[in-house]
Write a structure and sequence with these properties.
The longest helix is centred in the N-terminal third of the chain and has 29 residues, at about 1-30. Helix 2 (about 60-75) crosses helix 3 (about 140-155). The protein is elongated, with a radius of gyration of 24 Å. The chain is an alpha/beta fold. About 40% of the residues lie in helices and about 25% in strands. It has helices at about 1-30, 60-75, 140-155, and strands spanning about 50-55, 80, 90-95, 105-115, 125-135. The chain has a domain at about 50-160: Rossmann fold, CATH 3.40.50.10610. Strands 2-1-3-4-5 form a five-stranded mixed beta sheet, with helices on one face.
């Protein structure tokens, strides 16, 4: 009885794999021939605010929050994610597990926005925020922090002139 169940399972998996392979071939045949992409870099973002995200601590949710923020800034037309020594807004993100015995449950984070004219000049405090995140709302928190960064950049735009 066990051999027949195992054989039946193997047969079903093989049939499923074959159907998926056939479906993939059919889709691949319907795709148009791809055109060669030009090897030219895209133009630099005009009037984009340079930002840097600096994360301290190594809890899992805090790392995801910092990564999401960097992704948002990297794909945004309003910001340029940079590590260059130039005038920029730095986001200092500090995170800690909400419950040290259960680090996956939640994290407490603090974000401080500072303006840095260069690495050799003292920075200027712009704003700060503290909140709690869990795995379900990391992306929403990152979007909210990006929105707050837009407001901070607009409020202190004169620092870049």
């Amino acid at each position: 009885m066990r051999r027949s169940a195992a054989t039946l399972r193997r047969t079903l998996l093989t049939a499923l794999a074959a159907m998926l392979f056939i479906a993939a071939l059919a889709v691949a045949q319907d795709l148009p021939a791809s055109k060669a992409l030009p090897n030219t870099p895209s133009a630099a973002k005009k009037n984009a605010t340079p930002v840097a995200v600096i994360h301290s601590n190594d809890d899992q949710l805090g790392s995801r929050l910092a990564y999401q923020l960097k992704e948002i800034f990297n794909t945004s037309s309003l910001f340029t994610l940079t590590a260059k020594d130039e005038a920029k807004i730095k986001l200092l993100v500090s995170t800690k597990p909400e419950f040290p015995s259960r680090p996956q449950v939640g994290s407490v984070y603090s974000v401080i926005w500072i303006f840095s004219a260069s690495e050799n000049v003292l920075t200027h405090y712009l704003a700060s925020e503290t909140d709690i995140i869990d795995a379900a709302n990391v992306a929403a928190a990152a979007e909210a922090l990006a929105g707050r960064t837009t407001a901070v950049a607009d409020q202190y735009a004169y620092l870049f002139e």
